[in-house]
Write a structure and sequence with these properties.
With 53 residues, the protein is mainly α. The protein has a domain of 34 residues. The radius of gyration is 11 Å and the shape is globular.
């Protein structure tokens, strides 16, 4: 389990995503939406949809 958490954190950092904001957003998203469209919740996809860059 620790490896999964570490991978998520490292991927978010590598994508330049604010980790806390990303995690809170994803964890508050409806489970059904995450299950149907997991590609929308990767750090890179999340950054493209939520950050003004």
């Amino acid at each position: 389990m620790l490896d999964v958490v570490r991978t998520i954190l490292q991927t978010a950092v590598a994508a330049g995503v604010p980790v806390h904001e990303y995690l809170v957003s994803v964890l508050r998203s409806p489970g059904a939406e995450v299950n149907q469209h997991p590609e929308r919740f990767t750090p890179c996809a999340w950054a493209a949809a939520n950050l003004d860059t």
